C-alpha cells in the first residue's frame, strides 16, 4: 500500500497521448469511436465491396453475349414509370454500371443509410441512456466537441467503406466486365457512385442524428428509417408524389454515375442538406439536457397484455412495442407495394419481350402477375422480418443482460420455464408483426384491385421465417450466452440473404443455395407453398426454444 | 474564504416533475462538503447542473466562479466526477477504461494511477462487464481521482464498496483536501457524511432545509441523559430546566432528553447526590431523523388534506 498518493494539481510525469491512440484507440473520443466501429466497418466494407465484385461477376455470367446485352437495353423506355422512379432511370442497362445501378443501387444506398442511421442515432443517445456519457461529458471540452468527434469518426468509417466500394466498382468492371460492351467503370464514375450512396446515407443518418437528442436512440432510428422507406416509395407511388420533393432519391434521379451521367449540383445539394441535419444534431446535443429525451409515446396498452401475473404475458408485454413498430412499418410497406403491383404486372404483361427480359433478371418470378410481384417484394422483406425477429431475441436476452434474470430466478420459477416463457413471447411478437403486415398488404391489395386472399395468406411466410430466427436466437442464448444471441440471429439472417442473393447469379452449386432457409419457402404469394420449408421453420422455432431451455439449465447465469 | 461552488436560487423542473427549487449553496475551498438527502430529493440534479450536463430552469450555478453553462470546459478541466449511476464500456478492461478517461483529460500520471489501482485493490485486466458492483465503483472512483482534480464531485461514491475500501476512499479524500483540493459528495447515508464531511447541506423534496457544520448539527441534537441517584430522583429539579423533556423515572434512575446546551443539566446534577451520570451524544443520523423526520411526519397529514 502506498501512503500519500500525491498532491492534486501537481503534474508529475503526465503520460503523453500518442498520435496513433488519438486517431485509433483511447487517446480521444474520435479514436475510441473509430476503434469501436472497426467491426461495423469490416462488415459494411465487406458487404459493399464483396457484393459489388459478386454482382460484377454475376452479370457477366447471366448476360455474357452482346445479344443478351441488347435485350437488356430494350428495357429502356418500356419500364413502368413507377419502377423507373423506385429503382432509378434505366440508363445503359446493357452495361455493367447501368445494370448494377438500376438493380442494386437503391438497395446499396438504403443499406448504407441504415448503417448511418443506427450509428448516428446511437453514438450519443445510446451512450447517454447507458450512463457513460455523463463521465465523458465531464471531460474538459464542450458538448459540441464531443458530438463533432463522434460524428467525425462515423464520417471516417463511412468514407473508408465507400472507398472500398469505389475500388470494387473499378476492379470488378476490369476483372469481370467486357470493355467492348461498355462495362469498364472509370474511377470518377466509381467515386460519383460512392458519393451518391454516401450522401443519401448521410442525409438519413443526419436526420437520425438531429432527432436523437430529442427522441432518444430508438425513436430517432425508427423515425429516420421509416422516412427513408417512405421517401423512397414516394418516388414510385402517385398518391405520395408530393412527398417526393423532399426525397434525396428524387433529387439525385439524374445522377447515374456508373454510366457517366453526373448531376454534381444535385449531389452537392444533398450533401449540404445532410450537413445541415448533422449541424442541427450537434447543436441540439449541445443545447439540450444530457440524457433527457421526450421519446415517442406509444398508445396505452391494455392491462391484460401488460399483465404481471405470468412470465409469458409479462415477457410479451415487453416485446409488444417493438413487435408493433416492426409490424406497422412492414404493414405500411406492404400496403404501398400491394397497391402498386397490379399496375406493374399489367404493364409488363402487355409486352412479351419485356416480360421475358424481366424473367431473366428476376429468375423464378412471374412478374406478369400481381402475385409474382408481391412474391418478389416479400423476398426482399424477409430480411426485414428476420432482423425484426433478431430484435425480439435481443429483448428476450435483455433479462439476463440487464440483471433482471437473477431476481426472476430467485423466485420459484425454473430456468427452463423462463426460457420457454420468453421464447413463446418472442414467437407471439413475430406473429403479431406478421398479422400487422398481412393487414397492411391486404388493405393495399384491396385498394389496388389485387386478389386479397393470396396476399394475406402468403404473408404468413414472413412469420414462419421470423419464428425460425427466434428459435435460433433462443437456442444460442440458452446454450451459449444471451449477450450474442441477437447478433448470431442477425448474422444468420444476413448470411441467408447473401446466399439467396449471390448463389444464383454466380452459378454456385445448388446445395449452396439450398443452405438458405429462404430458398425453401416456396412462392406463397402465388399459392405455391413448400411444406418442407414450413415444417423446417416450425421445427427450428420449437426445437430452438427447447434447446435454449435445456441449455439454460446447464450453464451459469451471467 | 473562496467559494469553489456557488449556486443562486438554482431551480430545475422536468415538466410537471419537481427537480430542485431555489437551492442556494456555497462550498468553500478546502472543505469536504456533504450533500445529504433521501432518494429522489434532488442531489443528482444539482450535481449535473454544476457540470452543465443539464441546464437550470432558473437561477445560476458557479464553479470556480465560472457559470456552469457559460464555460463548462473550463470547469471540467479542474474537476473529477463520479456519477451516481453509470455503466461504462462492457468490452473494455478496467485498465483501458481508465486510460481512456485519463486521456480525455489530456493524459494521466501513470505512477499515480497505478497507486490508486493498488490502493483500491482493483484488477485492471478484467473486462468491465465482468466486475462486481463494487469493482465497477472502484473503476469510477479511480477515473475521478487519477487526474488529481482541484474539485471532486462525487455522487453517492461509497455505493457498493466494502468497509475496508470505504476506509481507503475516505483516506484519499482527506489527502486530496490536505493537498488543497475540495470535495463535494452526495449521500443518503448519514453516518458516511458524519465521518467524512466538514459541512453538510440537507436537501429534501428539492429544497435545501439546512446547511451547517456537522458539529453544529450535532449540537442541536437531543442529548439522552441518564442519572442514577442514591435516593428518590428529584424530578421537579430537572423538569423546570430549559430544553428538558421526556423525563422518566425507573427506581433510582432518571432519564431525560435535553434539547440544546446540556450545561444547566450538568450544573443541576452537580448540586445533587448523583451516583452515576451518562450523556449519550447522538449520531447525526439520529439528529436528522429527530429533526427532519418529525417535520415530514407533521407535514404528512397536511398532504392528506
In short:
The complex is a heterodimer of chains A (558) and B (305). With 558 residues, chain A is mainly α.
Largest interface, counted with CB-CB under 8 A?
A-B, 39 and 53 residues
Overall number of strands of chain A: 0
The helix count of chain A comes to: 22
Order of helices and strands of chain A: HHHHHHHHHHHHHHHHHHHHHH
Total domain count of chain B: 3
If you had to describe this structure to a student in words, what would you say it looks like?
The complex is a heterodimer of chains A (558) and B (305). By secondary structure, chain A is mostly helical. Chain A starts with 18 loop residues before the first helix and ends in a 6-residue tail after the last helix. Chain A has helices at 19-23, 29-36, 38-62, 66-73, 81-87, 96-122, 125-130, 132-137, 143-176, 187-233, 248-251, 264-287, 311-349, 352-361, 370-401, 404-409, 415-448, 452-458, 460-479, 485-506, 510-514, 531-552. In chain A, helix 13 (311-349) runs antiparallel to helix 15, helix 17 runs antiparallel to helix 18 and helix 19 (460-479) runs parallel beside helix 22 (531-552). The longest helix of chain A has 47 residues, at 187-233. Chain A is globular, with a radius of gyration of 25 Å. Chain A has two domains: 20-291, no CATH class; 308-558, no CATH class. Chain B is of the alpha/beta class. Chain B folds into three domains: 3-78 and 149-217, P-loop containing nucleotide triphosphate hydrolases (Rossmann fold), CATH 3.40.50; 88-145; 222-280, Alpha-Beta Plaits (2-Layer Sandwich), CATH 3.30.70. In chain B, 36% of the residues lie in helices and 31% in strands. Chain B has eleven helices and 14 strands. Chain B has helices at residues 43-50, 72-76, 94-104, 110-119, 133-145, 163-178, 190-196, 214-219, 235-239, 263-271, 284-304, and strands spanning 3-14, 17-28, 32-36, 58-63, 66-67, 79-82, 151-155, 182-187, 199-204, 207-213, 222-229, 244-250, 253-259, 274-280. In chain B, strands 6-7-8-3-9-10 form a six-stranded mixed beta sheet, sandwiched between helices. Chain B has a four-stranded antiparallel beta sheet with strand order 2-1-4-5. In chain B, strand 4 (58-63) and strand 5 form a beta hairpin. In chain B, helix 3 runs parallel beside helix 5 (133-145). The longest helix of chain B has 21 residues, at 284-304. The chains are: A mainly alpha (558), B alpha/beta (305).
